[in-house]
Amino acid sequence: MTAELVRGQNHALPGTDLTVRVEAALPVLAGMTLADADGRGREGWLVHGDALSLPGLLAPGRPAPAHDLRVDLARLPEGARTVRVWLALPSAGPASFAAAGAPRVVVGEAAGAARLAHTLGGLAAESAVTAVEFYRRAGAWKVRAVGQGYAGGLAALCADHGLPDAATLARRVLASSAAGTRESAPPPQEEPAPQPGRVDYRHPGRAGRVGPAVDVTHPGRPARPEPRPSSGEPAAPPPPVAGDASGWSMEERLHNQVWGMFEDLARAVAAYRGAVSFADDRLEREIDGVLADPRTRTGPAADRARERARSRQGELIARARAALDRDLDQLTAEAAVVEPALPPAFARWDNPVWHGYRVPEQAPLALRLGDLSLPERIGLRIPMLVRLPLERGLWIDAGRGDGPATTVLDGGELRREAGLLATAVAGRLLAVHPPGRFTVRVIDPAGSAAHTLRPLVDSGVLAEPPARGAAGVAAVLERLTERVDLVQMAVRSGAADALPPGLDTSEQLLVVHDFPHGFDDRAVTRLRYLADEGPSVGVHLLMVADREDAAAYGPLLDPLWRSLLRITPVPDDHIADPWVRQVWTYEPPHVPPGSAILPQVLGALAAARARLGGR
Amino acid sequence: MTVNLSKGQAISLEKAAGGTLSAVRMGLGWQAAARRGLFGRRSKEIDLDASAVLFAEGQPVDVVFFQHLRSDDGSVTHTGDNLVGGAGQGGDDEAILVDLQRVPVHIDQIVFTVNSFTGQTFAEVENAFCRLLDENTATELARYTLTGGGSYTAQIMAKVHRQGGGWSMTAIGAPAEGRTFQDLMPAIAQHL
């Protein structure tokens, strides 16, 4: 089993006796450096070949496309706290990793099957790179995928790792590997210079040099293919890597990557649909042309003309489909690496990341509100990420829309699904915020949602029990209205410290079930005030409602519905993308049936809150 | 290799590019109007605009210009409207990038145009040029000097079109009159 690490990710190690396999498209050098608790290296803390060795650490001293390094973390020298694995290009090789492809590092326990892999993507002008590091945290060894490249080469890398006399050290490593074949590499000046023109009979494995570097390929087989020249035929796209986008943090990079995939899918499908509609129009035009002329309307010539028009249409559509399939395959491969790398806030409920749920220390950038897909490839689902804090409220439509799925479920089932979805969304919002920074209040006037609210109520993560009856509705709305008003005043006058003590300044989510049951006109007005004014001061709305129930209000509530982001408890086509306005199929982020993940996560959150409260 | 073209000259660049083109960039640069006097900002700004029109068998199906910076399929991208120009020393003030591999299969020609939105003729604009580059190798395929090109307000610059399995380019360099690409459509039709 191999787990793929993305850059910056860390992971617990399976043991302390490790093998590190390094693979690259071209021969590379590999080695290790050590650092102490302050992150500084010391004299002799670089491992490369036999000449530079330390107990417990083993790295071959020659350039090769694949290396096996041994790391025994239990035998490190006194004071060493970090082991970093580096790769560098030999002086005889290409000048930068741009020509060497993305190297890959696989870490495993010497005797075990568990593997952790990291692909060093995105290298360009660098000629040395820190691949992974092993470090001690809270008594346990962990590995981190670093992937830090150095355009200044090995010397810059050694200097950054705090090794004394980095430039000399790097020169020595590079020179010894260029000296070629021997396992132990003395300084190059000891090497007798080969006589030009003379045949060298020495065994290449023992001493002397036969060339700038050892040729490890089979003599009868062609060497590895040369990297493609940059001009000419387009190269095959590189394999996708999670986090392959710009951003300050892994989370932001993944967010931007997902949005990039969303846009690329929208545009790839737009290109396909444009080509198909052009082909259809052209077919119609050409057949009209055949029919318009009385001489060609009938007879074999007409049949041939129609046949030709049809085959032209078919051929264009086939080419469009081929281009689309190429793009969709690339996006599907990208989704396959991105989806498992997503943090909890972006991940589906069935992602294993939720099983390792830890209470977060800061609020996430965005929240997954479902999946989006297009009929051209149903299986390719793009996470629908919305930025936090929410800019507008959410409306889970419990009504019977015109979607196909709503005809399968009756009204009661639909309401139940809507209630479950509201609980899943509220639970997710709670779970991805640090404890105490996000508060959920629920209005359930008739108690009809009591069953679907169970995970929230039972785990004790709600600020107070769900409000019942008209009096409960009025009380909750009045408190929230007052909070919005006070915070707005404080913000406007720049007097945040003048807020009354005891005012809860955390982000608030109000979940409203059964609207408009239990709402009088005053309460409806307050709700609309919250929907309009709340988001800017951290009060958000999640309505679970069927618009038909509020039909008595006529068009008066239309602005309210329009101001909310509508999501549906069953898959439905109602979300348009911002670029080409295609209609996407939205799938709600339901907790998988039978899964206990939501109560488990909320339980962990409640326990963390209790710890914080008790401190 | 730069082909310095005079107006009306048309050449195929398939071979000159050393293979098939896979990404091209149209660049447009000009010198901003001189600022003089106390209220310098009231000097008459010069706004030239680059546009690309996508054709399928002679029908315009999409256009990339300052109000639609990306074609619906995402293959043609405008880097953004520049309203005042720059130093005119060779840097592009507006650019349009075309990823030829991603152009939808039914699009067979892309025509690049330059318009003077503020109405100055090319005779009045200093150091104005437009050029076409092979984006992969950063080599200039064609360059027109617009300044001194007569009292015209627009130019139909070049087209890239499908040829065999790849793309080739024909420089057009035909002068025209118009504020935006819409005004040029009849003139463009002559060059398809």
From TrEMBL, chain A:
Residues 185-195 have a biased composition (Pro residues). Transmembrane segments: none annotated. It comes from the Bacteria. Pfam families: TerD. Residues 177-247 are annotated as: Disordered. Residues 69-161 form the TerD domain. InterPro entries: P-loop_NTPase, Stress/Tellurium_Resist, TerD. PANTHER family: CAMP-BINDING PROTEIN 1-RELATED (PTHR32097), GENERAL STRESS PROTEIN 16U (PTHR32097:SF4). This is TerD family protein. It comes from Streptomyces chumphonensis. The lineage of its organism: Bacteria, Bacillati, Actinomycetota, Actinomycetes, Kitasatosporales.
Automatic annotation (TrEMBL), chain B:
Gene3D superfamilies: sav2460 like domains (2.60.60.30). Coiled coil: none annotated. Residues 1-179 form the TerD domain. InterPro entries: Stress/Tellurium_Resist, TerD. It holds the Pfam family TerD. This is TerD family protein. It comes from Streptomyces chumphonensis.
